[in-house]
Amino acid sequence: MPLYGYDGPQTPDRVKGARIFSYDPSATWFTETNFGISTGNLPKLQRFTGKERDAESGLDYFGARYYGSALGRWASPDWSAKPQAVPYADLADPQTLNLYTYVLNNPLGWADADGHCPAEDQCSKITVTAEVTKEPTIKTDPPQGGKQTTTVEGQVQYTLKNGDKPMAGTPVHEDVSNKVSINGTPRSATTQTADNKTNPQGVIGDQVSHSLTLAPGPANTIMTTQVNKKDTTQVLTIDSPSGGKCTCTIQRTLTNNDGSGGASSEYQIILRTPETQSMTPKPPGQ
Question: What is the DSSP annotation of 219-240?
Fold first, then answer.
């Protein structure tokens, strides 16, 4: 990431005397430039995933052992404090039997924090619990410009824990897709993204809503006398403690289906995935 220093007044197209230091995690040097003219290179120690590189061996130090990024292999086999025949192995997954590979040969999806466990081990320890915190209610706004909006709105919340510990202040990226139908006829499909952060209890809240804007009267009638359904798929992604990305998919439905195919004046939020799920490693390239 460039770092800028100033020693002169700013002009519209440049900063006089600015010195720019370019940093590339995969490169060997910091490069200093003056208005695009290279003035010299400075040696850089922090390399692959921010680990320090040994100048003599060219290996990166991870704590438990050294890694050769040029070869894509560890310089020594993995080990554990408690003697095991094959440390950290899962006999159902042949990739775990190779003690020299970096995060099961998936460096795009996961990261190794200390030279031992890949991020996938961390993901399985993180759980997401979904809960309906407010049942849906219907409200109708006053008419404006010959139009009137009727909205049904409820709330859910997600609690993130690492083991038994709430994940407070954790950034969460959300990818959300919605499909709306009325009496079984598709009406719209939307996608959106959002970035959130858990509160001190490891919780993020989410509003569940569906609205119609029509001429005064019809919108409220359609919302209560016809079967409305909004299916939502929400993918939560976080950075695990060991540096990889963990993900969890939650599906829910907002509907006034009375259970026999008819319409009800009351709505409900149905969680279509397990109430509590373990996160999984995010596939590479996604």
Answer: HHHHHHHS-EEEEEEEEEEEE-
